[in-house]
Specification:
The chain has an 8-stranded mixed sheet with strand order 1-5-6-11-10-9-7-8. It has a 5-stranded mixed sheet with strand order 13-12-14-15-16, with helices on both faces. The chain is of the alpha+beta class. The protein has 2 domains: 240 residues, BirA Bifunctional Protein, domain 2 (2-Layer Sandwich); 88 residues, Rossmann fold (3-Layer(aba) Sandwich). Bound molecules: adenosine monophosphate. Adenosine monophosphate binds next to strand 6, strand 10, strand 11 and helix 11.
Length: 420
């Protein structure tokens, strides 16, 4: 009877050789840029307490109300983290990172989980890189975060991207705005989509996010948050824009940008790409001055961003941007006979110790089959070893690309490889 075949869960993908090199290339750029900006890496567990995410991200958000993967075990309720800002905030409070002095500049890369309906650019396990700058309310911090995010995309060479910018104000500005929005939408409530009607009481700002036609026609003339910002929020926003101009970072103001997460205050931004189709957001972020307190810490201002790696890959693919080299071995050792194989096991170690990548045959195949394998793997060089080579101490060193061979002692081969 045929066995059941196992498969990945819907919306979860294996990253296979051929792809994983691209991932490593992107991750290396992120880590290198983090070094340049002096952000330190933080790695938090993929499982968190459900309550942390509910409180941190917000009960009324789509993430918490519909998309969490949760389970219970004993007394504890676990959630697969749907994002990493609340976990980083938790770690900041739990480990008293504020006592290290100054601001904390942290970055992360890792898998996140949301039970969304999978489609292109939307998975149930996806990967984010992101950064958090905790402990400063200065607009310089907002711009540092935006600069860091943009620098990564610049290095990768992504074009056709737009930075959208808004300020969602402090709670006071938002309360006033909320009231204004409700007053504006109230007479049209019955004409709004069902989802928007549900959001009317709880979170009217999210109506602005709606893509439904029946909402769009009202959203177009809705009052704008920018008209309800307090003086301080206005000057913070103006300073963020001034600094972005100073750095030559182009942006488009979008007063309808509210983002799906509840914890944002003041600056909100999103980076979109025209090469992504309907899921056009590469990443986004903003200021979240209330989150640290919400998860049990002292009031601490902070700002951060999170970006999707899958979406970055899709955009690069549609623009034909190469992501690093393929991982071909530098050397393939071809052996004939047991003695040669024994020699190769030691020689390959010496080659690798110089930082050169090397591989060999692991199943005693014929020379012809090994040569074919070396070609298939696109090895740059082959070293051919049999009994006679071991006797004379001269080995065939073959340049696979040029199809040229010479007989050389092993030391010479090593030197050639090192200086190749
Ligand atoms: P968010 O945490 O919702 O602000 O998302 C930040 C970024 O993560 C988005 O702009 C996307 O690039 C990426 N992202 C969010 N959800 C998903 C998903 N389900 N699948 C793939 N990427 C996602």
């Amino acid at each position: 009877m045929a066995q059941n075949r196992f498969q990945t869960h819907h919306g979860m993908k294996d990253i296979l050789p051929g792809e994983s090199e691209k991932w490593r290339y992107v991750e290396d750029i992120i880590k290198k840029t983090a070094r340049e900006f002096h952000f330190s890496e933080i790695r938090t567990p993929v499982l968190e307490q459900t309550e942390l995410i509910a409180r941190g991200v917000g009960q009324l958000t789509d993430i918490v109300s519909k998309e969490m993967f949760t389970f219970e075990r004993g007394e504890d309720n676990y959630v697969l983290r749907p994002e990493c800002t609340a976990p980083v905030a938790r770690a900041f409070v739990e480990h008293h990172l504020d006592q290290r002095g100054g601001v904390q500049k942290l970055f992360y890369i890792g898998p996140m989980f949301r039970a969304e309906r999978p489609q292109k650019g939307r998975q149930r396990q996806f990967h984010q890189f992101g950064a958090e700058l905790i402990g400063s309310s200065d607009p310089i911090a907002d711009v540092e975060i935006i600069r860091f995010m943009m620098r990564i995309y610049e290095k990768i060479g992504l074009k056709n991207i737009t930075l959208q910018l808004n300020s969602v104000g402090n709670p006071e500005s938002r309360n006033n705005y909320r009231e204004a929005l409700q007053n504006y939408f109230r007479p049209h409530l019955n004409e709004l989509s069902e989802v928007s009607q549900a959001r009317f009481e709880t979170n009217p700002m999210r109506i602005l996010d709606s893509k439904e036609d029946e909402d769009q026609k009202w959203v177009a003339d809705a009052p704008l948050i920018t008209d309800y910002l307090s003086e301080e929020c206005q000057s913070h926003y103006a300073e963020v824009k001034r600094l972005l101009n100073e750095l030559g970072i182009p942006y488009t103001e979008n007063p309808l940008l509210v983002r799906g997460l509840d914890y944002y205050t003041r600056t909100a931004f999103e980076l979109t790409s025209t090469d992504l189709g309907s899921q056009d957001a590469l990443g986004g972020g903003g200021r979240y001055d209330l989150l640290i307190e919400e998860v049990g810490g002292k009031p601490t201002p902070a700002v951060g961003f999170a970006s999707g790696i899958e979406r970055l890959m899709i955009a690069c693919e549609s623009l034909d941007i190469p992501l690093g080299e393929n991982d071909f071995p530098d050397v393939y050792i071809i052996t004939r006979g047991d003695k040669a194989r024994n020699w190769a096991v030691k020689a390959i170690d010496q080659i690798r110790n110089t930082g050169i990548s090397a591989t060999m045959d692991y199943s005693g195949r014929s020379i012809k089959a090994q040569m074919k394998d070396a070609n298939r793997q696109e090895a740059t060089y082959a070293v051919i070893v049999g009994d006679s080579e071991l006797e004379t101490g001269l080995f065939t060193f073959r340049n696979m690309k040029e199809s040229e061979e010479e007989l050389l002692p092993f030391e010479k081969i090593l030197q050639k490889l090192i200086h190749a």
